[in-house]
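Hi Q.,

Before the meeting this afternoon, I wanted you to have the 7JM prediction in hand. No need to reply - just skim if you have a minute. The sequence and ligand are here:
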Amino acid sequence: KGTTREQRALKYLKEHARQGDPDSVLETFDEFCRTQEWAMNAAEEKGDILDEIVRELQPTTCLELGTYCGYSAVRIARNLSPSARLITIEVNPDYAAVAREVVKLAGLQDKIEVINLDSADVIRELKTKYDVTKLDLVFLDHWKYLYIRDIKLIEEEKLLKKGSVVFADNVIIPGAPGYLEYIRGSKNYKSTFYSVHFEYMDDMKDGVEKSVYIGDE
Ligand SMILES: Cc1ncccc1-c1cc(O)c2nc[nH]c(=O)c2c1
Ligand SMILES: [Mg+2]
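Predicted structure with the ligand bound:
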């Protein structure tokens, strides 16, 4: 084959999506995943909830852990106000390279910064190196065992404020052992679970968890 699934997806997007049109990029990516090859995008019901959160919260500074090909980064950024921005972290260099192309194709490179590093290392430097004061929205969509490590690090760095939203994908499949217990057991969050279909699979159920920070700043 020579190419990876992510490279094939990017090729399809370049051939079929409208340059500079985020909606077209997302629709085309969904079409690819429905007709050509499945990919782990926070799409369909998951994406609809994400859209709703962004539209209601109108976040200024967003952090995404787990960029993959940039689908949810585009989904978030297309609804951001002019001065708002999204920092998205992807540890896999091949995924990060594709994501940067997808972000460019959507015309959102001025709103989205893709960082190809380990999430913990970046979280520790958000205030000093990335000019972040507080995070209004955090989207956890990387590796299930890192959700709890990274949310504790975000708390340690005092990056959340009252009203900040932490949105987690895949809390059922593959599941986020320990994260749900931690966040639901914490007095600093008000959590809501949403039962949703797994991306592009009408006969599989997953879950997402929306947690609003109400703790001390
Ligand atoms: C790929 C896959 N296969 C079977 C079951 C679940 C998954 C799956 C689905 C996702 O939405 C993911 N999101 C972020 N990171 C992941 O690793 C991930 C894995
Ligand atoms: Mg996911």
